[in-house]
Structure formats: structure tokens, C-alpha cells
Amino acid sequence: GPHQRGRTVHMSSAVTVASSTALSSRASVRGASLSRRDAARPVARRRPVATSASGMKVAVTGAGGRTGSLCMKLLAQSPEFAPPRGLVRSDKSAGKVKKLLGAESDAECVIGDVSDAASCRALCEGCDGLVILTSAVPKPKMASLLVAIVSKILPWMDAKRPEFYFPDEGRPELVDWAYQKNQIDAAKAAGVKKVVLVSSMGGTQIDNFLNTMGDGNILLWKRKAEMYLKASGLDYAIVHPGGLLDKEGGKRELLAGLDDSLLSGDRRSVPRADVARVAVACLTLAEARNVSFDLASREEGEGSGATTDVGALLANLPGEYDYSTPTGSPVPLP
Questions:
Q1: From CA 149, how far away is CA 67, in angstroms rounded?
Q2: Could you give the angle at the alpha carbon of 300 between the alpha carbons of 295 and 301, nearest 5°?
């Protein structure tokens, strides 16, 4: 049916925990409009899912965050996709996304929360694809932050790392497991054809520093959600980016790996813009059917130049991702 230009939808049963959930709601996007004439464009090569004439309709959670808003921008600008539908947690976040996408954009902003199963179901209704970009966000304990800064300045003091905590409603067990499960269940119920989950590198390592933050075991709860998606029967792609950089995308050679092998090298980070580009590519690539992989990048100017063909990158993966590790996880894994 016709899309209402730039509409915002409020979800009645949503947002009791919106203010306290630790999902990022910053927006940093500009967009372009999609017009009806786009409907007649040729079908892109290697597209594995049949969609309506107006292009593949994709829902994005965490759409107000830095990587989520970049995904919204790419989807809004591509003739291969219908105007995207993004889930944000507040009017303010929706306003930022819409302002930056531009008045002519047909992208939708839905206000709700992934903690609410009904919000997730309404978001996925009528969509062909879902990109999951929600994550718990640790907050530093202020006193420990000051100690860490002082320990760097004073030569006789041992360097100390700041301590972190998660707000109660924003802890990884909820945000990265229970609320991602809500999203996966909603996608399955709505008949979504493809789910792209952006997770994190380090899931094979129980003792990874990120797991110690706020005693949250964040990477292990993320891994539990990944394994749930893998077992769901949905066509999935799971992306494990390394450290996220706020740098320009499309400028670097990308590195794809398995089982945290990239963590033993010295190139362990990747621009958010490239993560967004890879996530959007995974929606339609045949090479991204039921695949899980790690993602990092070389420095700009290193290696063989900027990666343009994500399909070729994935085709060169040396095998399949191994979910039999880690053993002895404090988080119960399937």
C-alpha cells in the first residue's frame, strides 16, 4: 500500500522501560527519498528472497543509534529496498532520525521498546527483513573513572581500569538475550524472510574484558541469542564486528574471519559505516544465507584497497563458524 511520508507510529503497550533501557538512541543520519518510479527497477543479482514490487521492506531495531541510523540511511537511499521502518525509543529520537533523513523520506519511525513483545510484533508486521542492532551499554562508575585518570597521570601509581555497571533494566541478560529473543520470535511470527543480527567479536572467550564489565557477561548473553537465532529456522546472518570506529566507510579493506581468529591479529576494529554496509548487503546476498562471521578492517591505505564486493568477502570464509565453544560458560548456552 502507499507509504505515509515520514510517519511516526506510537505503540500503546510500549515504553515503560524506555527511559532506563541501555539501548543507544543517538541519531546520525541523512537520507534520500524513494519515489514510485523506483518500483520498475531491475531485480538485483543474487537476491534470495522474493519481495513486493516496491522492494524489500526492512525493519531496523536500535534505529536511533549510531550504527542503526547509518543502516536506516543506506536502506532509505537504495532502490533495492522499500522505505525502512525503524524502532526508536522516544519522540526525540524519532525526530532526530526523521530530520536527518530529510522531509521527503518515506522512512517510518516506530516508537516502542524491544522489551515489549507486542512492540516487536508490530514492528515486524509486513516486513521481509529485520536488522537487529540493539545492545546493552555499560556505564562507567564515576569515582572509578577519576581514579583511572589519576592513575594515568601519576607515575608512581599503578594504572587502573575504570569500573562499569549496567542499569537494572539494561543488563545484558535482558537486552542481549531476552529482548533479542523477543525480536527473533516476532520476526518468525510475522513471516520475515531474513534476519541480520549485529553482535560482537569475542564470543568464544569467557575471560574477554567485555564480559567483566559490570559482571554482565555481555558477549556470552549475545552468543546465547545468536544460537537461538541459528536454531530458529529463519534465514540468518550474524555479524561479529570488532571495535567500532566513527570513521568514513568504504575506504578500507575489510577482513572476515571465524571463531575470533581476528582477535589474535593487530587489526581488530572496523568503521560503523562499514558494519552498516555489510549488514545491509547481508539482507540480499546469497553468500550471506545462514552465515556467521567476524568483521574487522585494515587501516586506510593498507592491503589491497577498499572492499566493494561483500559477497566475495563472504565467499572466501574458510569454513563455518563453530558454536560448540566456549565450554564451561557461566551463562547457560544450548
A1: 28
A2: 125
> Which residue bears the cell 574458510?
318
Question: Would you name the residues annotated as active-site residues?
Answer: 200
CB 57 within 8 A of CB 130: no
Q: Report how far residue 68's alpha carbon sits from residue 133's, in angstroms, rounded to the nearest whole number.
A: 6
Query: What pLDDT sits at residue 40?
Result: 42
pLDDT of residue 308: 96
The torsion angle over the Cα atoms of residues 90, 94, 100 and 103, rounded to 10 degrees, is -150
- Report the distance separating Cα 225 and Cα 271, nearest Å: 24
User: Distance between alpha carbon 106 and the CA centroid of its chain, in Å?
Assistant: 22
Residue 97 makes CB contacts below 8 A (sequence gap 6+) with 27, 29, 63, 64, 69, 72, 86, 88, 107, 109
C-alpha 139/C-alpha 162 separation (Å) is 10
Q: Are the C-beta atoms of residues 331 and 171 closer than 8 Å to each other?
A: no
**What pTM did the predictor assign?**
0.84
Among 290, 289, 295, 304, which Cα is nearest to 276's?
Answer: 295
Which residue spans within the chain are E strands per DSSP? 8-10, 58-61, 85-88, 108-111, 129-132, 139-140, 164-165, 194-198, 235-241, 243-245, 254-257, 269-271, 291-297
Angle at 279 between CA 274 and CA 285, to 5 degrees: 115
C-alpha to C-alpha distance for 225 and 202, rounded to whole angstroms: 14
Q: What is the mean pLDDT of each run of 10 residues along the chain (334 residues)?
A: 57 36 31 35 44 80 95 94 96 89 91 96 97 96 92 89 93 98 98 98 97 96 98 98 97 98 96 98 98 97 95 97 96 96
Cα dihedral angle (118, 122, 123, 128), rounded to 10 degrees?
130
d(CA 331, CA 178): 13
**pLDDT at site 5:** 56
d(CA 325, CA 111): 37
Euclidean distance between CA atoms 110 and 130, whole angstroms: 14
Q: Are 243 and 272 in contact (CB under 8 A)?
A: no
